[in-house]
Predict the structure.
Amino acid sequence: MLAALVIVFREVFEAGLIVGIVLAVTGEVRHRNRWIGGGVLAGALAACLVAAFAGALSELFEGMGQELFNAAILVTAVVMLTWHNVWMARHGRQMAGELRAAGQAVADGSKSLLALAVVVGVAVLREGSEVALFLYGVATSDGGSGVSFLAGGLIGLVMGGLVCLLTYRGLMRIPPRALFATTTTLITLLAAGMAAQAVAFLARANWLTSLDRVMWDSSSLLSDRSLAGRTLHTLIGYTDQPTEMQLVVYIVVIVTTVVLMRLTAPGQGRRPGHAVPAE
Amino acid sequence: MSPSMNMVRNLSLAAICAVATVQAAFAIAQDATEIQVTYSKGQFQPSELRAPADRPVVFRVKNLDPAAMEFESDSLRVEKVVAGKADGVVNVRALKPGRYEFHDDFNDQARGVLNVQ
């Protein structure tokens, strides 16, 4: 039972952190629960589908289907997170101001909510498919151990939910004025870390083998398998043996986000209600 | 043309270059050592494996059990879910000599080791 708890908790931990952050980011936006809840539900359903077709998925691309699938959904999340940051640079300050409750802001906000719902869905999908496979395997195995394993798995899921709640509560303690800057930084690093993870998957699939020298090994200092290491891995993309390509991509994502945010930040005196994206 | 349009164009150019590099790298991939491992009744067979140093390794994991397993190793830096009654391919970069342990992440009883010389 404890083994099942640990396995499931380890998988849902990352998703819990990400959902918590997204909840804090969307703190005051109306209808956000509907969107985030929808993202979690869609992610869970997709996870069951992926688990059901895990064998077929693996066989794609000469056995590298799983790796490429993971890389693809991570890249999707990176694009959505970056887009959210850029969008917020344009509209966020206005929304945080007088327009927070106005109808226009809610209508605009739903575009950004869709992006974040996708991010949540992708996080749940990635972690959830392994949980589904594991629990399905346990449930179909014979004997009474199955029940206690399932119980352990369920407790693990609940603990993942607690991680989500703690992350959210922790972030909501930050004063509103500092919250915007904090979440922007968090989302940027989250995106950079996911991009570096995508690089690792592409490397495993032999699709991206250039610049694959390991830059350093800090596993003796902080293993990315420890709880602290895993937390940092999710939040800022910490890896104890990063390759050159991972580092390059990490920095490129951060720089790109900062540049795009600068470029799209609103000019002076623009009417908030009429601000529409340039493209 | 607005700066952001330029940005988009530069980014797409960078993406095209990246894809070209990836394909070039793909073509010159080194000859890898292939290793067959069977997973049955919650155990790896064989559980002691050998591979030469400084060459990439490809594990072909055959899961004979009905339940899924996850081939995982911290030192090899791999994790791969292999569905029940299915095969999985795991690529590992060229390795230094040493002992590399691996296990089934869904079952801590199943352990094995790769000796690289």
